Amino acid sequence: MELTILFLRACLALLAMPIYLLSFLGIWEPFCKKIFFPFFLEKLTVIHNRKTKKQKQELFRNLPDFAGPSGELKLLEIGTGCGANFQFYPPGCRVTCSDVNPNFQQGLSRSMSKNQHIHYERFLTAAGEDLHQVPNGSVDAVVCTLVLCSVQSVSKTLKEVQRVLRPGGVFYFLEHVAANPSSWKLFWQQVCYPTWKLVFDGCCLTREIWKDLEEANFSELKLQHISVPLPWTPIKPHIIGYGVK
């Protein structure tokens, strides 16, 4: 099986040889971050939101319950991208956006103009593993969707989540993950892994993110495995839920 995976990886790499060549020349990464990935993510956001609308509505339904003593809900979103989740946040919610890639301005501006029911506090250019610009215990909720697949360290990101949340605060997640062991879905994820990671800005297909969440010491963790109907892609398996600090 391993030889088959290596062979198919080589075949896929041959098909993507122009991108590998551009990467070798140092051209692909800046082009991907500035032009290709922001364009791709905005298109994916529309499709993914359509496929997960009911799940997201249910996921964020209890967000108002986590408002602070003042009645305001202070929310930090890690990996905001093009603002895929804005439409699901309650009116009056005060949102701080963060992303390691600052090149989503156009898509983000379009999403902000469509969702004026929430207040936008500021935008931070920051990795999920280093949110030092956000004080300890300063937010009521942290949201992270389709982001933990591409952070350098899931465990360090979750430690930062715990740090910035106030006691009793909540962390919401929706992430694509590794498929079931010995399944054909996992086989194709393993085949696509290197080329997918190169083309889609570091996205890792085979992370078992639920294990990191289970080890993150949330006082309460609600986690569900679901399948999102995204035909002809290796990112159908997802986890969805929330953890309380």
TrEMBL record:
Domain of life of the source: Eukaryota
One Pfam family recorded for the sequence: Methyltransf_11
Residue ranges occupied by any Methyltransferase type domain in the UniProt entry: 76-173
Gene Ontology terms, MF aspect: S-adenosylmethionine-dependent methyltransferase activity
InterPro entries found in the cross-reference section: Methyltransf_11, SAM-dependent_MTases_sf, Thiol_S-MT
Keywords, ordered alphabetically: Membrane, Transmembrane, Transmembrane helix
Transmembrane segments: 6-28
Record's protein name: Methyltransferase like 7A
Organism name: Phasianus colchicus
